[in-house]
Design goal:
The complex is a heterodimer of chains A (112) and B (114). Helices cover 0% and strands 58% of the residues of chain A. Chain A is an all-beta fold and 112 residues long. In chain A, strands 2, 4, 5, 9, 10 and 11 form a six-stranded mixed β-sheet that branches. Chain A starts with a strand and ends with a strand. Chain B is an all-beta fold. In chain B, the strands form two sheets. In chain B, strands 2, 4, 5, 8, 9 and 10 form a six-stranded mixed β-sheet that branches. In chain B, strands 1-3-7-6 form a four-stranded antiparallel β-sheet, with no helix packed on it. Chain B starts with a strand and ends with a strand. Classes of the chains: A mainly beta (112), B mainly beta (114).
């Protein structure tokens, strides 16, 4: 069974304190791994897609990396506006369609 | 351009009543998905439409749930005889037919069953 586990469940950082969020996955075959940001009361906002081990993508203070078993979302010098829940999802080969299997998310709080 | 829109944004209903939730995908996106997000739980896949193909209903939790997509665009998710455990945020997403298949989500409909 395809599984996605995110850790930690919650993370409190001071502004400027860099850290990483983890997404571990177990799938029969990976067609893509996706990172989303979700603010309270809103739908998930697409951030990155990663397809193969070794791939990296960056956007402002965020960098996503991928290995064969996990992905990391690195946050460099975070600001309070980076506070949100970050969701990881996979698109496994086992899905006949293109639906995503999501992890439980990491709730990030950045204090000024 | 315009994103995915959903209506209503909030719906409060009594147990046993039927509800309809609407999703308007991004223009040109052929794939449409419904997910459910319950308090303290992750996003749960419900149903998937791709063009004119038969929908993938494998995620629907019971036969009280159904969905249709008219004209390859707007979709309606219907929940019959609502139960309290149906209370959740219902999210719709769309994606283009060709890769990279990123899904773009709407703001969701928060359903509360009293």
């Amino acid at each position: 069974e395809d599984q996605v586990t995110q850790s930690p469940e919650a993370l409190r950082l001071q502004e400027g304190e860099s850290s990483s969020l983890n997404c571990s996955y177990t799938v029969s075959g990976l067609r893509g791994l996706f990172w989303y940001r979700q603010d309270p009361g809103k739908g998930p906002e697409f951030l990155f897609t990663l397809y193969s081990a070794g791939e990296e993508k960056e956007k402002e203070r965020l960098k996503a990396t991928l290995t064969k078993k996990e992905s990391f979302l690195h946050i460099t010098a975070p600001k309070p506006e980076d506070s949100a829940t970050y969701l990881c999802a996979v698109r496994p080969f086992s899905n006949a369609g293109n639906m995503l299997t999501f992890g439980g998310g990491t709730r990030l709080m950045v204090k000024p | 351009g315009a994103g995915v829109s959903q209506s209503p944004s909030n719906k409060v209903t009594e147990k046993g009543k039927d509800v309809e939730l609407r999703c308007d995908p991004i223009s040109g996106h052929t794939a449409l998905y419904w997910y459910r997000q319950s308090l303290g739980q992750g996003l749960e896949f419900l149903i998937y439409f791709q063009g004119n193909s038969a929908p993938d209903k494998s995620g629907l939790p019971s036969d009280r749930f159904s969905a249709e997509r008219t004209g390859g665009s707007v979709s309606t998710l219907t929940i019959q005889r609502t139960q309290q455990e149906d209370s959740a945020v219902y999210l719709c997403a769309s994606s283009p037919h060709r890769g990279p298949y990123e899904q773009y989500f709407g703001p969701g409909t928060r359903l509360t069953v009293t």
